[in-house]
Amino acid sequence: MASQLFTCLVFCLFYTCSASPPNFVLLFADDLGFGDLGCYGHPSSLTPNLDRLAAEGLRFTDFYCTSPVCSPSRASLLTGRYQTRSGIFPGVFYPGSIGGLPLNETTIAEVLKPLGYATAAVGKWHLGYGANGTFLPTKQGFDQYLGIPYSHDQGPCHNLTCFPPDVKCFGLCDVGAVTVPLVHNDNIKQQPVNFLDLERAYSDFATNFIITSAKKKQPFFLYYPSHHTHYPQYAGTGAAGRSLRGPFGDSLFEFDTTIGSLMATLDKMGVINNTLVFFTADNGPELMRMSRGGNSGPLKCGKGTTYDGGMREPAIAFWPGVIKPGVTHEMASTLDILPTIASLAGAKLPPVILDGFEMTDLLFHKGKSKREAMMFYPTDPNEKHGLFALRLGKYKAHFYTRGATHSSTTPDQDCSEFTVLKAHDPPLIFDLEADPSERYPLPLEDRPDIQAVLVQIKKVKAQFEANMVFGESQISKGESPNLEPCCTPGCSPKPTCCHC
């Protein structure tokens, strides 16, 4: 009852005192590990703005994405539904992908639009491009968009400059595709993108959106899925060489600097006290890149795996005067962001099965999370295998384990791409509070308490899978070179002629 009264008080404050609904800024890093930020213990990362948000906001220790790779994780974030429901599997979208996030899925932006919110997305979309930009953000509830519509390594990069004055990007990236474009709304603005100026363009776009919305006294939702710190790392003159951590650190610092600019703009425009800022990431670090690939801290493995290193992420909620500074060990997920935003805005939830839980009691009252379990699907989920793992309370059970190319090169052979799929019956069970590194499976023999936990985990798993209906796979629809975005359509020879 006390928590409900507190939530009511929050609503009264915003709708009576401020006479305006709250704003939302959602920041989403790319391939960022649990141990990559200064506020999560990294000794040489330079993240002063994120560290400040963590110190003055609520920092999560047990926050999960829904997939260890990009596209499915982003689908779940924006829809509040596991990627299996929307068909965003297996793997990720490519420049010529035929499918995309189905237009009948409801995004956070579409939840807010009926209430008069201004909505903008800036950065990495990666939920499909499609014929004539069918699946771009402007078709999914966003008024404005500026960004690369997929991962910035999904085009040749060996001749592109990633660091000043003319340091070429590390590696080859995807040879044979068009160079990555910068898209404004539905139109290609630049191809190939200029990495040295990209973050400045994003920062200017985002700050102008905040300024314009604030001047109009219009509530707004800004979604900034950054390319940082995905391979190949890049940074402009303001960040290059500034960190002690090399290219990865400079890339991360550039993103952090943009976050600082956004916070300063919110403050300058007088809307910071009426804005929820939420930061997290899409999946764990790409350990195969070694020092250029991020750090999962004490967690096991990274990107591509269903160990915690692949799906447990840094997360920070910041709202001055509303969210008290602190740390929460409650379990939460990207799935929970849509229902939380809808609750705070007074918006209607979409009439579909949602997998998220609103977090207002957790955020405002340091209460308990409504989330009791977290499900772990691999990059290529199917109904035959079902869940690879399930966390219930502090216990996590692995029914299947497998390594991944993205997490190779680490000394832990469980992470290696050569570690093939292995079924576990009974499942491997870990106590994540005592053993966050998932090193020591708990014995079942002579442990009636753990046996009881297993019974409950199996019950939760069976109930969940009985109600999971897999959507048609959008990624399995394949690719067509004709769908790759080109600023000079009809030119020849492709893809090299796509240049503007």
What does the secondary structure layout of this molecule look like, with pairings?
Blueprint: H1 2-17, E1 23-29, H2 48-56, E2 58-64, H3 70-79, H4 83-86, H5 108-112, E3 118-122, E4 144-147, E5 161-163, E6 167-168, E7 182-184, E8 187-190, H6 195-215, E9 220-225, H7 246-268, E10 275-281, H8 308-311, E11 312-318, E12 326-333, H9 337-345, H10 360-365, E13 373-376, E14 389-392, E15 395-401, E16 422-431, H11 448-466
Helix pairs in contact: 6-7
General description of the model:
With 500 residues, the chain is an alpha/beta fold. Helix content is 25%, strand content 18%. The protein is built from 11 helices and 16 strands. The protein has helices spanning 2-17, 48-56, 70-79, 83-86, 108-112, 195-215, 246-268, 308-311, 337-345, 360-365, 448-466, and strands at 23-29, 58-64, 118-122, 144-147, 161-163, 167-168, 182-184, 187-190, 220-225, 275-281, 312-318, 326-333, 373-376, 389-392, 395-401, 422-431. A 10-stranded mixed sheet has the order 8-7-4-3-9-1-10-11-2-12, with helices on both faces. Strands 13-14-15-16 form a 4-stranded antiparallel sheet, with helices on one face. A hairpin with a 2-residue loop joins strand 14 (389-392) and strand 15 (395-401). Helix 6 runs parallel beside helix 7. The longest helix has 23 residues, at 246-268. Residues 1-7 and 13-17 have low confidence and may be disordered.
